[in-house]
Amino acid sequence: VRDALSIALPLAFAATALIAAAQTEFWPVIAVLTGIFVLVLYLTMALPERGFYLICAGEPAVVAVGISSLLPALLLQLLLLAIGMHSLGLFRSRTDMPAFLAFCALTLALYPMATFFRQMLYPVLLLGGILGVAVLFFTISGYNLKKKCAGADK
Amino acid sequence: VQTTRCTRGIAACALVLATFSVVLGEPAAFLAAGALLFFIIYRAGVYHARVVRIAGTLAVSRVAGRLMIRQGSTIDVLTKVTCTLPGHMAIRITDLPPPGSAVTDGAVERTLSSPGAASTALSYRIRILSRGDTDFSGLSIRVSDRFFSEELTFREGNFAKPVLHVQPTGIFEAVGARGTTGEMEYAKRSAPSGYSVYSFREYATGDDLRRVDWKLSAKYQKLFVKQYTSHIGEPALIIVDLPDQSGSENTQVLNRMVTAIEGAMEKALRQYRTVSLLVVSGGNIIRFLPAEQNLSKLMVAVRNMRPIARSHHFYRIREEFALRSRVSGIERDLSAVPPSADERAYLSNLGSVYNHFMKDRQMTAFEAQVDRAMASVHEPGAYLFSMLEGDLSHIRMIVYQARRRKTDIYLQVPKEAYTPGVLKSVLESGVESIEVIQ
Collapsing DSSP states into helix, strand and coil, what is residue B351? Predict the structure, then answer.
């Protein structure tokens, strides 16, 4: 299954990008960006942090597809993150896939945000707020855990 | 929680896309940026849940070769650590020996990365340089995955066990063996006047038989030894040895030492109402504040401490105590050698040279000043703060002067200066105890 995913996920990404490109007038740009992604996929095969390079290489193609249509772009983005995770070896245990699917479901909430606002400043600020709350939560949880481990709360 | 290079890269990518979306008003870039940020949050959540799971399953059992030991001796420690490790995680385990000890052999660190129930054993040897009842500092783990890493320190319960009972050396220490070339002699010390018995404990191998309380032992059919009161409370004399200006300029370590000095002064002032502060740098007296009651004046003196250019060094001067012990050692060797042996002529010549050298030896100005400072404060104990950098002759001189005045020296050193070789040589000069400034 693991080997199948390493072929299926990039194939799905390239196919989705090219199908989305066929619907737009600037399909050559998307095709070139997808080609660059495939090239990076080939060139980084032996690198330890391959997942990060693949995410970076795939983002231009995602944005290019998103200029004409947002839903395929969102699908491409999730596929790209799945490729990144798989490259980092994070799909090995049984619990990884359900957790990733839950994350995908949460990420779909971004779509109404992107379509609702005409200016992107407010959704970006909202995103910053969500990030701030998450950082605060993890900081407090981490602090409590450290305190518990050190026995300071006894 | 620390982020890895991969996480920082993804965050930077998300930031660029978010900026792009705001500047150009492009929803696609916002979508990509949002997905990347959600991805980081999702991975942080997974990581945190796994760290909590690891912390919950971590267990340790530590066995020390002996629990009752003598200051300066070594013991073997075996620490077994078990935990359940989720996939894609690595854990670096570091056992933390007791404060005031030095690892002399073995490894205190190991990394585990195989998922599932994992266990490892750390076997090492430590030398205990402090005294009193001391427990282990705990166990530290660094948990890391592809995106985050975090260090946790466990200090409670089994993580700090067992407690080591470290007996001080020196009250009835026997004279060490000496050869013709003159190895180190341990000072023979009697229980000073004013020392009294404050408790009893069971006899341990190596205890001096003169400390056995025979009445109590007969009553309980077990050997009990007396424990003497030695040092109670904080010393009211604080000696600070400032580093040389030409040495390493480690201001962070110096600042930490200054903080420790401030703490010691505050404690001593609270207890005795006066504190005497002697500041030296190598063989140079910088400042002496006898019986000072004003904390702010002491604090000002301490806070302005900086490395000093040392104009005098004592590495060519043999201490009086060392000379005396050397001469008495040669005399002892002479009495053991048969009259016809060739070695006798050599030893008597050597003894004569040392005797002449000792007669002509003048007390240095530094020794005289330190002696005057110690005589003026009449303290049974003194803290000596030093970074132990470079030549340590002046430290030995201070310790010898303190011994002349029956003053115990409690050396406080930053952990950076904590090398077993240096500490051993200082301990051999007669320092009562060594504590590490963390």
Answer: helix
Q: Which residues of B touch A154 (CB under 8 A)?
A: 156
**DSSP conformational letter for A53:** H
Cis, peptide link before residue B162, omega less than 30° from 0: yes
SS3 B156: coil
Beta bridge partners, B319, equal: none
Phi, psi of A95 (to 5 degrees): -80, -15
Tokens of A46: 């032996």
pLDDT of residue B40: 93
Amino acid at B179: G
Burial of A30 (0-12, 13-18, 19+ CB in 10 A): buried
Structure tokens at B167: 């007996």
Check if the beta carbon of residue B321 is closer than 8 Å to that of residue B263: no
Whether B172 shows a pLDDT value over 50: the answer reads no
CA distance B434 to A51: 51
- Which has the closest alpha carbon to B358: B392, B330, B318? B318
Give contacts of A 12-51 with B, CB under 8 A: 49, 51
DSSP three-state, residue A39: helix
Residues 6+ apart with CB under 8 A from B323: B354, B357, B358, B361
Residues B216-223: what's their mean pLDDT?
87
Task: Return d(Cα B135, Cα B160) in angstroms, integer.
Answer: 6
CB B99 within 8 A of CB B132: no
Q: What is the pLDDT of residues B49-78, one digit of tens each?
A: 999 999 999 999 999 888 888 777 788 999
> Residue B229 corresponds to which tokens in the numbers above?
């009161």
Residues 6+ apart with CB under 8 A from B3: B11, B147, B148
Express as a percent the part of chain B with pLDDT over 70.
88
Q: Which residues pair with B164 in a beta bridge?
A: B134
Do β-strands B68-70 and B164-167 pair in parallel, antiparallel, or remain unpaired? parallel
**Residue B14 to chain A, least CA–CA distance (Å):** 10
Evaluate whether B27 touches A119 at the Cβ level (below 8 Å).
no
pLDDT at B396: 84
Q: What is the pLDDT of residue B11?
A: 93
H runs (alpha helix) in B151-200:
none
Identify the residue whose tokens are 């792009």: B20
Helix (H, G, I), strand (E, B) or coil at A24: coil
Helices A50-68 and A2-22 cross at an angle (nearest 10°) of: 30
CA dist B344 and B366 (Å) reads 37
Return residues 81-140 of A near B (CB < 8 Å). 81, 88-90, 92-93, 96, 99-100, 103, 106-107, 110-111, 113-115, 118-121, 123-124, 127, 130-131, 134, 138-139
* B307 Cβ contact list (under 8 Å, min separation 6): B242, B243, B244, B245, B247, B249, B254, B281
How big is chain B, counted in residues? 438
Min Cα separation A4/chain B (Å): 20
Arithmetic mean of pLDDT, A43-56: 87
Task: Output A37 or B211, whichever has higher pLDDT.
Answer: A37
- Confidence check: pLDDT of B182 > 60: no
Whole-angstrom distance between the N-terminal and C-terminal Cα of chain A? 48
